[in-house]
Amino acid sequence: METTKAEGTLREAAGNVKETIGSLAGDVGMQLEGKANELQGKAQQLCADATELARDAMSSRPLAVLAGATAIGFVIGALWSARRDTGD
């Protein structure tokens, strides 16, 4: 997982550089592409962090995680069933 987080950090930095170059050159397309790359890098880092937290939670409290997953599944099933009953 550390590789994914490092890749996200590099992508964020490269996007920031690209956005700055686009700003200096007056190229709006390059600015937007740089900002998109920067946000993608941040999202990749957040995903890596969330994965690490989930892995830690599963190893330290497996029954709590199982109960949470069961509750989420029940809620999704109830919402799906209610939506099918209304005909939407």
Automatic annotation (TrEMBL):
InterPro entries: CsbD, YjbJ_sf. SUPFAM superfamilies: Hypothetical protein YjbJ. The chain crosses the membrane at residues 63-82. It comes from the Bacteria. The keyword Transmembrane helix applies. Residues 5-55 form the CsbD-like domain. The keyword Magnesium does not apply. It holds the Pfam family CsbD. Keywords: Membrane, Transmembrane, Transmembrane helix. Belongs to the UPF0337 (CsbD) family. This is CsbD-like domain-containing protein. The lineage of its organism: Bacteria, Pseudomonadati, Pseudomonadota, Betaproteobacteria, Burkholderiales.
